[in-house]
Design brief:
Layout: H1 3-30, H2 34-45, H3 51-58, H4 62-74, E1 78-82, E2 90-94, H5 96-104, H6 109-118, H7 122-138, H8 159-163
Antiparallel strand pairs: 1-2
């Protein structure tokens, strides 16, 4: 294999490994998955979010978020409350233990990436975006639905994300 192709494949593998390693560190350190932590972050940022609003906020399906909320509630990290104005709406409330995790957890990879990416000159940002779009095409991955969140596995195919 030519050096350039090897370098690109290694770079792709490093990206995948970085996502998996962060997921493992979070799980070991805080006993939550990345999707669960994303939910906790979103709930802290917007305490009035309903479960459906939470699903939209973190780009996961409502059924996935409902399963994640089940597990967060079992762990004593959130409590679900029915809206007093509309009993059909359920609002996940962050409990003290959930707030501690949010306060202690490291920033998510996508947050670090976005901060650094925004500091690059616009022409470099455009070049990276174009190269990644082309890479997606080369991998025949255009039809894959993807959240902007760097999750360890694809939500449509992985029990890790579905079960959160």
């Amino acid at each position: 294999m030519a050096d350039r192709e090897t370098e690109i494949l290694r770079s792709l593998r490093k990206i995948v490994r970085a996502i998996d390693m962060q997921s493992h560190r979070i799980n070991v350190s805080f006993n939550v998955t990345v999707p669960q932590l994303l939910c906790l972050y979103a709930i802290q940022r917007n305490p009035s979010l309903t479960l459906s609003g939470l699903a939209e906020e973190i780009s996961l399906s409502p059924s996935t978020v409902n399963g994640i909320a089940d597990r967060l509630e079992e762990k004593g990290l959130i409590h679900r409350v029915r809206s007093s104005q509309d009993r059909r709406k359920v609002i996940p409330m962050l409990l003290e233990a959930g707030g501690r995790i949010v306060d202690e957890a490291p920033p998510m990879l996508q947050e670090t990436f976005v901060q650094r990416f925004r500091r690059l000159p616009e022409d470099e940002q455009n070049a990276i975006a174009a190269a990644l779009r082309k890479t997606v095409r080369l991998l025949d991955a255009e039809a894959i639905d993807a959240s902007p969140n760097l999750l360890p596995h694809d939500p449509c195919c992985s029990s890790d994300v579905r079960t959160g």
